[in-house]
Design brief:
The protein has 265 residues and is of the alpha/beta class. The protein has one domain: Spore Coat Polysaccharide Biosynthesis Protein SpsA, Chain A, CATH 3.90.550. It is built from 8 helices and 8 strands. It has an 8-stranded mixed beta sheet, sandwiched between helices. The protein is globular, with a radius of gyration of 17 Å. The model has no long low-confidence stretch (mean pLDDT 91).
Length: 265
């Protein structure tokens, strides 16, 4: 990217993040971030009030729609706000907000369309507190995904990502799941559209207030990924075409409605 500084919007899909939202927001490099949007998925704690106190652009779901639905609202609102680069950062303070410059640099340099902050690149996440079973599952699923996509990434399962605007306008967000598998569906769509994916190392923190999926949730997530890869294989080999993977190229305008969100307060 060249010319004027591109607008960088950070989006935070939040659910019961009251204990860590202050910390996450405080560490963001304000000189690089033009706007911070928080979408609250009907939290039962003080997340919404804290977001108001911090002066964040706030959108509140009228019920708990799910992690994927939360991201859909995040990206719709960021695009409507005119973002050139959208950074998705979990507000649970597990990922280091100060690393945002490294996250967006490959996009600024014109070398990537998507950048993933990898916990497994150049560090041992188990020593940082990641449960061993989660580490093993992550490595296995990443290996299977690399084989399916023809890539050589260290991790696909991160909550710290940056997107060029054009990626989010091209992929069919609304056909993706409202659950955790959304993270992998959007990457699969990007791979199918031959988007360039880069990664940078991001050390992480594991502590009680940080969000973490249970063993059961992780098992469902893993099986859902295998089903997704099977469907993608059918698409890739022209056996069965699915609209979910096709390019959409929709333009998001400021007056587009957001069906699942209401503006706070």
């Amino acid at each position: 990217m060249s010319g004027a500084k591109p607008k960088v919007v950070v989006v935070m899909p939040a659910y019961n993040a009251a204990k860590t939202l202050h910390l996450t927001y405080a560490d963001l490099p304000r000189d690089l971030v033009d706007s911070v949007i928080l979408v609250d998925d009907h939290s039962s704690d003080e997340t919404v009030n804290i977001a108001r106190e911090l002066g964040l652009e706030l959108f509140v779901h009228n019920r708990n729609y799910g992690y994927g639905a939360n991201q859909k609202t995040c990206y719709r609102e960021a695009l409507k706000a005119g973002a050139a680069i959208v950074v998705m950062l979990h507000p649970d303070y597990q990922y280091d907000p100060t690393l945002l410059p490294q996250i967006i640099q490959p996009i600024l340099d014109g070398k990537a369309d998507i950048v993933l902050g990898s916990r497994l690149l150049g560090s041992n996440p188990v020593k940082q507190g990641m449960p061993w079973w989660k580490y093993v599952a992550n490595r296995f699923l990443t290996w299977v995904q690399n084989k399916s996509y023809g890539l050589r990434l260290s991790e696909f399962h991160t909550g710290y990502r940056a997107f060029r605007r054009e990626v989010l306008e091209a992929v069919n967000l609304e056909m993706n799941s409202d659950s955790f598998i959304f993270d992998q569906e959007i990457l699969t769509q990007a791979v199918n559209l031959k988007m360039r994916i880069a990664e940078v190392p991001v050390p992480t923190r594991y502590f009680p207030a940080a969000s973490s999926a249970s063993f059961f949730q992780s098992s469902v997530y893993g099986l859902s990924i295998l089903w997704l890869l099977f469907r993608y294989s059918l698409q890739k080999h022209s056996i069965f075409r699915q609209r979910q993977f096709d390019s959409l190229l929709r333009r998001y305008e400021p007056d587009d409605p957001s069906p699942q969100a209401k503006i706070g307060p």
